[in-house]
Amino acid sequence: AGEGSGPGPGDGAGPPAPERVLFPPTFSVSEIKNKQRRHFMFLRWKQQQRKEKLALKKKRKKEREALGDKAPPKAVPKTIENQRVYDETTVDPNDEEVAFDEATDEFAPYFNRQTVPKILITTSDRPRGRTVRFCEQLATVIPNSHVFYRRGLALKRIIPQCIARDFTDLIVINEDRKIPNGLVLSHLPDGPTAHFRMSSVRLRKEIKRKGKEPTEHVPEVILNNFTTRLGHSIGRMFAALFPHDPQFIGRQVATFHNQRDYIFFRFHRYIFKSEKKVGIQELGPRFTLKLRSLQKGTFDSKFGEYEWIHKRREMDTSRRKFHL
């Protein structure tokens, strides 16, 4: 019989027939030759998948409510993060060797409160408007930072001038096709120097529901998931950009969040709604960094000694292997 034959659901011939399954288990969208039909059927298939997933979720919830305290614990979903390949350089907080290295490395004077950060922010030659605005906004995030433009000077000539003027760090923003795409962070006077690839840059005017302009208060700094020896060094580099004593009255916080070796930067302000409720309001700018190399000493592209270089073909063999 065809689809139109047979008793209908309302003619008194028994209970209605169960809803016909839209897609058989062996259904494949790629077998449909017509492009428009293929796109339409793919959307229908995705819709059915969502319905089945939601129905299964409701069914499991009812079963857990019926079992009450006897319900089995919820299964932990498998993610790339919790299946991460173990790294032998993961830092143990109680490791004496790590404590000794931190007490004697280039950032020790900052953490011992012997030096106060003073940052120089510069750009590649002839920066365009977007890069200039990004540097200006970055200077409002990092206290005691100053923006100067290159005017054709080589970095090897800029670094001695920075050291003579007591700058503790140098930040260089590089651009390509009018878009900021790289960041060089050099700790002065003895290094190290980190080179990052920059992406997903958003200025303040491009952020939805942004707050008012940041104040001059020293922000709190949050560093997340810098767990290896390399990650520890990068985290200390970022921490050394900000004065050691935050002014909590300003309610501002700068966050460097490492996830799968991508470092996400966000700048927020706390909004206290009551004694128990608190919200956050993004101030901007925001950007994402990916470490490309870590070099001993100050910037030297020709004779510099590298501690770590990202080699894609050798290091990116597993999606569950992270270096920071």
Concise overview:
One of its GO terms (molecular function) is rRNA primary transcript binding. Keywords: Ribosome biogenesis, rRNA processing. With about 325 residues, this protein is α+β, with helices and mostly antiparallel strands.
Order of helices and strands: HHHEHEHEEEEHEEEEEH
Question: What structural category do the secondary elements indicate?
Answer: alpha+beta
Shape: globular
* Main sheet characteristics: 11 strands, mixed
Describe this structure in words.
- With 324 residues, the protein is α+β, with helices and mostly antiparallel strands.
- The chain folds into two domains: 29-65; 87-316, 3-Layer(aba) Sandwich (Rossmann fold), CATH 3.40.50.
- Helices cover 26% and strands 24% of the residues.
- The protein contains seven helices and eleven strands.
- The chain has helices at 35-67, 96-104, 108-111, 129-141, 155-164, 229-239, 312-315; strands spanning 119-123, 145-147, 169-176, 179-187, 193-202, 220-224, 252-259, 262-272, 278-282, 286-295, 306-309.
- Strands 1, 2, 3, 4, 5, 6, 7, 8, 9, 10 and 11 form an eleven-stranded mixed sheet that branches.
- A hairpin with a 2-residue loop joins strand 7 (252-259) and strand 8 (262-272).
- The protein is globular, with a radius of gyration of 28 Å.
- The protein starts with 34 loop residues before the first helix and ends in a 9-residue tail after the last helix.
